[in-house]
Amino acid sequence: MANNDDGSTQGATWPMPKFRFEVDFGNALKNVAFQEVSGMDVENPIIEYRKSNNPLFSTEKMPGIVKYGNVTMKRGVFVNDNTFWNWHSQIAMNTIKRMTVIIRLLDENGNTTMQWQLNNAWPTKITSTDLKSEGNEVAVESLEIAYEQLIVTNG
User: Which of 8, 27, 39, 65 is the most buried (most CB within 10 A)?
Assistant: First the structure.
């Protein structure tokens, strides 16, 4: 017998759509609109170690120190908005103002369904838009953020 569940039944579970989200940079920059956010990943490099008394002639694999990738955010360029360029320009003598960045995935009612919290985040790279005289696309800049901890929560 085939299951003809069209999702209309109570308790149907579907993957979350990813097109409605917001980014919060704290008090000054709440709910910043981006067209794309990518790179929220965590990795544990493998450490290979062979104990001297191991009867097997092979290594033991153990998890290493957690490593986080950089998050890249893309958004349209707006007139008189140099917010991220100003943040990046604060880098001086190996110091920068770090902040907590929160990325929220929203449902159809605007409620948070999933949240990524980037702790001690700072801008490592800004890429300005490309310019084409024959193009008709929106001007888009990208912001790359380094961070030290990723906390994922649901609901």
Answer: 39
